[in-house]
Design brief:
Blueprint lengths: L3 H33 L2 E9 L16 H20 L2 E6 L10 E6 L10 E3 L3 E3 L2 E9 L2 H9 L6 E10 L9 H24 L4 E10 L4 E5 L2 E17 L4
Antiparallel strand pairs: 1-6, 2-3, 2-8, 4-6, 5-6, 7-10, 8-10, 9-10
Length: 243
């Protein structure tokens, strides 16, 4: 007959082995998660005959090499927004109090479109577009930054925004034009996160926002429109009135 003392002894003997197995499981789980976070991938679509590009002195139709250059700039913009994101300081307007809206969005960092960590695949022509896949190898610091956007307190928000089609006269950067639409979408994501969280209208709000995945761009009504999913962290608010 097995005594209580014998059962306790057997249980104690199994405890170190159990702890060892749990540790091994957790260790490899962490390794797998880390491996899954060390690179990002996204596709860029470039119009092969963009009439708006004439402002930038580009000959049409756009060559594969020209499309690849633009795609690298756009991919770098998306990866920058996914890894570093923005800080925002938002003073919410209120017409009844004669308070004008003031929304400042500040990038926290940027990916170099010519850097060794960004790899662009060969453009594939489909219809009137070049489709180009990209891969970005994260540094250790960037991997930690990217992982921080998946922690508690982060809100996922689908949003869209718009910007001018050609930008200011003399602007020679294609990506600067699309950036305006993307940042407008990010601001709208912050507004949506505030409406979702607060019944009463905040007076101001501060926090961080980041792109969750590559955006989709299209031309609507003679303007760029960017549609994307964002991650928003509301860090500080002050309120008054009813939203």
């Amino acid at each position: 007959m097995t005594t209580k003392k014998t059962k306790k002894t057997a249980s104690k003997a199994r405890t170190p082995e159990l702890k060892k197995n749990i540790f091994i499981f957790l260790f490899f789980t962490v390794l797998n998660l880390a491996a899954a976070q060390d690179a990002l991938r996204g596709e860029v679509r470039i119009d092969s005959e963009p009439v708006y590009a004439l402002e930038f002195g580009v000959e049409l139709p756009l060559s594969a090499a020209g499309a690849l250059k633009w795609a690298a700039e756009e991919a770098a913009l998306s990866y920058s927004a996914m890894i570093y994101g923005w800080n925002f300081d938002y003073k919410i307007g209120d017409a009844s109090r004669s308070i004008a809206e003031d929304f400042n969005l500040t990038p926290n960092g940027a990916v170099n479109p010519s850097g060794a960590n960004l790899k662009m695949e060969t453009p594939v022509k489909e219809g009137g577009y070049f489709l180009i896949w990209s891969d970005y190898k994260l540094t250790k610091d960037q991997a930690l930054r990217f992982a921080s956007w998946k922690t508690a307190g982060i809100r996922e928000v689908q949003s869209s925004g718009s910007g001018a089609l050609t930008g200011k006269a003399g602007n020679d950067s294609f990506v600067m034009v699309k950036r305006a639409a993307l940042e407008d979408a990010a601001k709208n994501a912050v507004r949506a996160a505030l409406r979702d969280k607060y019944t009463n209208r905040p007076k101001n709000a501060r926090g961080k926002a980041a792109l969750s995945a590559f955006p989709v761009y299209r031309i609507e009504g003679g303007r760029w429109e960017a549609s994307a999913r964002f991650r928003v962290k509301l860090e500080e608010t002050g309120g008054y009135g009813v939203y």
